[in-house]
Amino acid sequence: MKKMLEFKAHDGEIEDIALGPDNKVVTAGRDFQCCVWQQDQLVTGLRWHENLPGIPDKAYRYQACRDSGTFLGLGTVTGSVAIHIAFSLQRLYYVKEAHGIVVTDVAFVPESQPGQDLLGGHEAALLSVAVDSRCKLHLLPTRRSLPVWLLLLLCAGLIVATILLLQLAFPGFL
């Protein structure tokens, strides 16, 4: 084996590391941060005081991380579990104290046929394991979105309604 790259990712120990798509690396450190790296460049990161205002920075720490390509699953030393969008780190799912104590590992259910049976129409499923000797399945509900054709139809309707209102307010406008 040959070392390809070395850089300082965290102040203190790294709790967990996960390889993601497009040569990205996710790290969870004892410095209360979770970071997404591209080579040695920080792409984006999470800190508790920014992500969850009102929760003291030193009370929580990211312990475990996994990146499915679409989502980033995180576990904490306080037993909390979260799912974020991998590229923006927008939080989609959070359960405070899902476990009684430290989450030691998280893993996404594979997208194979047996995995699809567990998903049951949900967008993602994350397994979490903790020191409390429990394994829990967290299901991320499918996000609702409007079809593009409906959005275009609504925009066209707004334009027509605006023109009609302007015509009523200012006769001879057109």
TrEMBL record:
InterPro entries per record: Sec12-like, WD40/YVTN_repeat-like_dom_sf, WD40_repeat_dom_sf, WD40_rpt
Compartments, as annotated in UniProt: Endoplasmic reticulum membrane
Membrane topology: Single-pass membrane protein
Keyword Cytoplasm: no
Residue ranges of the TM segments: 146-170
One GO cellular component term: endoplasmic reticulum membrane
Keywords: Endoplasmic reticulum, ER-Golgi transport, Membrane, Protein transport, Repeat, Transmembrane, Transmembrane helix, Transport, WD repeat
A Gene Ontology biological process term: regulation of COPII vesicle coating
Molecular function terms, GO-annotated: guanyl-nucleotide exchange factor activity
Superkingdom: Eukaryota
Name under which the protein is recorded: PREB protein
Lineage of producing organism: Eukaryota, Metazoa, Chordata, Craniata, Vertebrata
